[in-house]
Amino acid sequence: MPTLAHGKTLPASLAQVTGQSVESLIGKQRADGHWAFELEADATIPAEYILLDHFLDTINQPLHERMAVYLRAIQEEHGGWPLFHRGDFNISASVKAYYALKCVGDLPDAPHMVRARQAILAHGGAETSNVFTRIQLALFGAVPWRAVPVMPIEIMLLPRWFPFHLSKVSYWSRTVIVPLLVLMAKKPKAKNLRNIRVDELFVTAPDQVKNWPGSGTQSAFTLIFDGIDRILRFLEPYVPDHPHQKAIDKAVAWVKERLNQEDGLGAIYPAMANSVMMYDCLGYAPDHPDYAIARKSVDLLVVDTPERAYCQPCLSPVWDTGLALHSLLEAKASRDVVEKACNWLVDKQILDVVGDWACQRPTVRPGGWAFQYNNAYYPDLDDTAVVVMALDRFDRQRYRNVIERGVEWVLGLQSKNGGWGAFDADNTSYYLNHIPFADHGALLDPPSADVTGRCLSMLAQMGYAKDHPQVAAALAYLRREQEVEGCWFGRWGTNYIYGTWSVLCALNAIGIDPKDPMIRRAVTWLRAKQRADGGWGEDGSSYWKEKPKGEGKVSTPAQTAWALLALMAVGEGESSEVSRGITWLSETQKADGTWDEAHYTAVGFPRVFYLRYHGYRAYFPTWALARYQNLKSGNGESVLWGM
Asked: Chain-centre distance of CA 229, in angstroms?
């Protein structure tokens, strides 16, 4: 048993807790070396899956009934459906869930349907739903097409210098929009052979609504874009056939080029589902190779059990494997286990496809990793940094060439302001957030503190110094981005706890003095956010400006681990806060070596779409416990790695 500097030994219980979690994590490794945990969103994805089948008339009633079990189970006490576990009512999620349940066969006078309907009407009715929900309703004839903003298919023909161009929006927006443009041009109507309608969800009859919701922003841009929308709506019937068809053909070719086999367009559900509906409305037969593979990609997202089923928004194997690797490297797991995972990741590096990111960086060679099994057009900076650091930590010499290409790609994708976005460089055409179509506020992929911290951590681990120009620019960006309270925003994890973890790890790795005021403010903030039980927890409401940062209803294992890893990274391993956090993790571990975590600790789009990574409750607590043991056993205070 390890001996501490003051002569005491680590409690056997801590070593046992860590060992159990390591054993559990190793037990979930796939035969080829990778990990892939379930990835859960809110009610919208399984609801949309059911509606997709009713659009196509490919109804699988037994599967839909199992999805209905899931949808009923996540209905909240307020009567509707939230964006995250125990969250507030959300009109769009609730409208979709209600419609889906009615399609499955739930009667409108069933108690749960009555509660849902009353909640929807109390919040303004289905007419107040967001743009994507109103598009779904328009496809079913539930609202007129004038309920949605005009997005002409001729967008496909615009030059890059034009104020709106596909290269100016995020990857996820691109892949969702292109097949959607075809749908909006063709305006097909769902087969909906059961003729399921939801007229009862509207306060005002859809054909009587005069002013449908706009972008939700108030600015000069809003007025300009609203005016453009009115002009486009007037001109839409008069567009000549030739350019119209040319634009449709270009959209179809764009989708086909990025169809991504059974992993699907963009490897995300909304884009994949839109591609299926696009092929259907264009008259493709279901057994056409493009139609068939697009449909298969959607079905592969379904998690189906005898009791219930749901549809995932995407798959996360590279992300899960990279993070699990860091956890097991910290825990000094078997070399065979780690090596198998590293080799699987090496095979996933994208070296021969120049993706959409090259629109902004045409001279940069590919070399990144995607989030999913395959998504060659859309590698991301976060995954790439995580994977590079794991491979480097295991065997720098063996993977030298792989690592160098990854670092080269990350350096090439740094934005002008010193930060990194997730998928593109300089995706910062902020005026586009004011177009009526962008009411979800997630049209762009600008740099963020959490991704920048990760990329900086990677550069630091690879030996880059503070005076390197790109490192200095990243540090300056992070100093500017620190919140007044001392924390950093978390774009892809919830929220300020996640962002602060990412940045503090980077600042430690690059050699910023722990006494630096920037670090001390962050440490003070993290300490203040520790809950009475010793853990940390923050829910998705912190993405609203008026809500407190770093606070939630309960402590969660993943967020507690992030806070602990952040504090240990900057020399706080001996603090009482860290000790209490470690105790909380130890005492809340389940018999199988994992933790319960029903609350969502990640985000797809702030205020719009949240995520629950089922792997977070497995590898993050393991990582924090192992690091604590290592610091104690080594009588040291410093963390030597980027993460």
From this structure: 30
Residues 6+ positions from 195 with CB-CB distance below 8 Å: none
Residue 380 domain-assigned (yes or no): no
Residue 411, in any domain of the structure: no
**Which helix (H) or strand (E) covers residue 619, if one does?**
helix 616-633
Range of the domain at 557: 448-643
d(CA 308, CA 296): 20
174-204 residue pLDDT tens: 999 999 999 999 999 999 999 999 999 999 9
| Domain CATH number, residue 540 | 1.50.10.20
Evaluate whether 191 touches 57 at the Cβ level (below 8 Å): yes
Q: How large is the angle between the packed helices 131-139 and 171-186, nearest 10 degrees?
A: 30
Plot region of 158 (φ>0 → left; ψ -120 to 50 → alpha; else → beta): beta
Catalytic residues: 382
Q: Which of 292, 311, 330 is where one domain is finished?
A: 311
Q: Which residues of 173-205 are buried (b: 16+ CB within 10 A; e: fewer)?
A: bbbbbbbbbbbbbeebebebeeebebeebbeee
Which tens digit of pLDDT belongs to each residue from 291-336?
Answer: 999 999 999 999 999 999 999 999 999 999 999 999 999 999 999 9
Domain boundary among 256, 289, 311: 311
Asked if residues 265 and 127 have their Cβ atoms less than 8 Å apart, the reply is no
Predicted model pTM: 0.94
List b or e across 283-293, with b for residues whose CB sees 16 or more CB atoms inside 10 angstroms: ebeeeeebbbb
Helix runs in 482-539, H state only: 496-510, 517-528
Q: How many structural domains compose the chain?
A: 2
User: Out of 62-66, 226-230, 390-394, 436-440, which region has the weakest mean confidence (pLDDT)?
Assistant: 226-230
* 114 and 166 Cβ atoms separated by less than 8 Å: no
pLDDT tier for residue 3 given thresholds of 50, 70 and 90: very low
Tens of pLDDT, residues 208-229: 998 877 645 556 666 666 677 6
